[in-house]
Amino acid sequence: MPPPPRRRSYTQRLRAESSAGTRQRIVSAARDALTARPLQNPTVAEVAERAGVVRSTVYTAFGSREGLLRAVVADVNARGGWARMQEAFRHPDALTAIVRNLEEGARMIGSGAAVASAITALAAVDPDAATVAAEIDAVRLRGVRDLVRRLDEQGGLRPGLSREQAVDVLWVLTSWGTYDQLATGRGLDPEAVGARLVDIAVRTICPLPEPAHDHRQDQHRTVVDR
C-alpha cells in the first residue's frame, strides 16, 4: 500500500498545533481570571471570552470547569519546576530527597503563588476548586509518606519519633499555608523559605547530633584526681 500523501500529515500537524495553541490560550485565560479576582469564581463563560473562544471549546478541551482548574494547576507546576521536584524525589538517599524536595517545592510554589493562593481560597466555597485542592493534597501526602518510609528504612529517622509524627511534620512544612506565612508574613524569598523549611525538617525529624566532646573537662578531671 502506498504511503499516505504528505499533505494529509502536514494538515494533521497544523490541526494539532492549532489545538494545542487553543488549549494553552484557554489555560492562560483561566489563570489570569483566577489571579485577577482570587476570591471570585471564574466562570467558563468568562474564561472563554478572555481566550477568544466559545464555551463549547472549553468543554471540549477540558471536559468540565474542574478539569480546567486542574489543567491550570498542572501548567503552573510544570512551569515552576515540577520535573525538578520529581527528579529530587527519586534521589536514592531519602534525606537528600527530602531536602531537595523542600527546596524545589518552595521555588515551585513561589513561582505560582498567586494561583496557589486563589485555589486555596476558592476551595472553601467552590466544589470544583475543593476537588482540585484535595487531589493536590492527596499527591502531597503520598509523597511525604514515601519519603518518611524511606528515611526510616535507611536509619535516618530520629529515635523515638514515629513515622506518622514525621509525616505530620513534613505535611505542615510542605503546605501552602506554611509557605505563605514565611513568604508573606516574614518577607522571605523562595530560596530563603526553602532553606528555613530544610532547617526545621532536619532539626525535627533527624537524629540529634552527638554533643561535641569537651577535652577541657578531661583535663580538669585529671588535675582534680591528682
From TrEMBL:
It holds the Pfam family TetR_N. GO terms for molecular function: DNA-binding transcription factor activity; transcription cis-regulatory region binding. Keywords: DNA-binding, Transcription, Transcription regulation. Residues 1-10 have a biased composition (Basic residues). The keyword RNA-binding does not apply. Residues 43-62 bind DNA. InterPro entries: Homeodomain-like_sf, HTH-type_TetR-like_transc_reg, HTH_TetR, Tet_transcr_reg_TetR-rel_C_sf. The keyword Metal-binding does not apply. This is TetR/AcrR family transcriptional regulator.
